[in-house]
Design a protein that fits this description.
- The chain is 44% helix and 27% strand.
- The chain contains six helices and five strands.
- The chain has a five-stranded parallel beta sheet, sandwiched between helices.
- Helix 1 links the parallel strand 1 and strand 2.
- Helix 4 packs parallel to helix 6.
- Belongs to the universal stress protein A family.
C-alpha cells in the first residue's frame, strides 16, 4: 500500500480514467492521499507560445483547475483527497520534480499506445518510468 500517490492527468486519455482511479484506490493506504497534477506544456512546446497573453494562460489554468476539482470530487473519496496542482513546463520533468517535492511513493499515469513519434522521441510515461525515484504504474 502507498501513502502518497500522484496522478498526472492530461484529459486526453479520458477512456482510461476509470482504470487509473481504480488502480489508485486499490493501491492507496487507508490513510493515504491521492494528488492530482496537470502539466501544461504550451509555453514549452507550442510554436505560438510567445504570443500567449498572461490573461489567456490564466484563463486556461483556471479551466484546468476546474476540471481537476471536478475530477477530484467525482472520483476520489474525501478521505484520500490530496493536492491539486497546475504547473507549466516539460511534462515528464515536472512530474518527476513534483513527485520528489511531495515525497510521492507511487505515480500512476495513463498512456496511449505508442505511435511512430514515440519511437523517436519517447513518451512522457516511458521517461517517468526510467527516471522516477518511486514506483510507477502505467495504465493502458
Amino acid at each position: 500500500m502507498f501513502k502518497e500517490i500522484l496522478l498526472p492527468l492530461d484529459f486526453e486519455h479520458e477512456y482510461l480514467t476509470a482504470r487509473v482511479v481504480e488502480s489508485a484506490l486499490r493501491l492507496c493506504h487507508p490513510q493515504g492521499r491521492i494528488h492530482l497534477l496537470y502539466v501544461n506544456p504550451s509555453r514549452v512546446h507550442h510554436a505560438a507560445a510567445p504570443f500567449y497573453s498572461k490573461e489567456l494562460l490564466e484563463k486556461q489554468d483556471e479551466a484546468i483547475r476546474d476540471q481537476l476539482s471536478g475530477f477530484m470530487q467525482t472520483y476520489i473519496p474525501a478521505e484520500h483527497q490530496g493536492r491539486m496542482e497546475v504547473r507549466h513546463g516539460v511534462v515528464y520533468d515536472t512530474i518527476l520534480a513534483r513527485a520528489k517535492k511531495l515525497a510521492i511513493d507511487m505515480i500512476i499515469m495513463p498512456a496511449s499506445r505508442p505511435g511512430a513519434e514515440t519511437y523517436l522521441l519517447g513518451s512522457n510515461s516511458s521517461k517517468v518510468v526510467r527516471h522516477a525515484d518511486c514506483a510507477v504504474l502505467v495504465v493502458r
